[in-house]
Amino acid sequence: MKVCYPGTFDPITKGHLDIIERASKAFDQVVVLIMRNPRKRCLFSEEERVRQIEKCLQSAGLKNVEVKVGEGLTVQYARKIGANAMIRGIRAVSDYEYELQIATANMELDEEIETIFLIARPAYSFLSSSVVKEIGENGGEINDFMPEIIVDEVLEKLRKKEG
């Protein structure tokens, strides 16, 4: 079964990587899907995010995972790439309520594409790219929240943003 894991991944966190690793064990093929969202102002370009994620995947030895960039409705892009389901991470009740609305709308758009929720590990239940960026922008330590292989790149980009 082929699944996709859509998101912005600006930047990828250890929480994202944990979901990807768990999905890669459960499914034949996982597509990490960076979706263009004109409402979000991203720190990293699409190319930078693709490269960061690919570095993390290679470092983790995940051979059945690939990265793509998509736009439009996620459920339609999932259909286009031949995915049977979309993976969504759930950190808290508030995530569930939001994701339930999206999953229900997606069922109306394409009833053959399932949404599968993976619960975040407790260590990552508070973690998001926005939280990591805010901590880093304010001089906090982000090493525990980011894949080690991209920490320096993220810190450098945050420093350039400030300067």
Overview of the structural elements:
- With 163 residues, the chain is of the alpha/beta class.
- The chain has one domain: HUPs (Rossmann fold), CATH 3.40.50.620.
- It is built from 6 helices and 5 strands; from the N terminus they run βαβαβαβαβαα.
- It has a 5-stranded parallel β-sheet, sandwiched between helices.
Write the layout of secondary structure elements.
Layout: E1 2-7, H1 14-26, E2 29-35, H2 46-60, E3 65-70, H3 74-80, E4 85-90, H4 93-109, E5 114-119, H5 129-137, H6 148-162
Parallel strand pairs: 1-2, 1-4, 2-3, 4-5
Per the principal axes of the C-alpha atoms, what is the gross shape? globular
Let me know the CATH homologous superfamily. Answer: HUPs
Percentage of residues in strands: 15-25%
How does the helix and strand content classify structurally? alpha/beta
CATH class annotation: Alpha Beta
**How helical, in percent, are the residues?**
40-55%
Features:
alpha/beta; five-stranded parallel sheet; 6 helices; 163 residues; Rossmann fold; globular
